[in-house]
Amino acid sequence: MREETREFVLTVIRDVINLPLPDRIGDDLPLGEEGLGLESLAMIELVLQLEGQYGIQLPEEELDPLLVRDLGAFVDVVVGRRSAAAVGGVAQ
Questions:
Q1: CATH number at residue 32
Q2: For residues 64 and 55, what is the distance between their CA atoms, to the nearest angstrom?
Q3: Quick one: which of 14, 16, 35, 92 has the fewest CB in 10 Å?
């Protein structure tokens, strides 16, 4: 589930948000300007795509830039939400 989620995130960034991906994409790659280049509007688009794709909700407080600084942490939050929805049958 983690690898699928990670690939979906990168596909959305590249194909929907239309940002170029760097050659090396490690889990430690920052989400912001010094890494993937996600700014606030791009992040909103990414979250909307993830919520639609996986039928989950990603509360803003879970995506605080001080807590979720890199690709790996972001993917972990999404996977946690997907897992909780699968176990509990509730996507919130």
A1: 1.10.1200.10
A2: 21
A3: 92
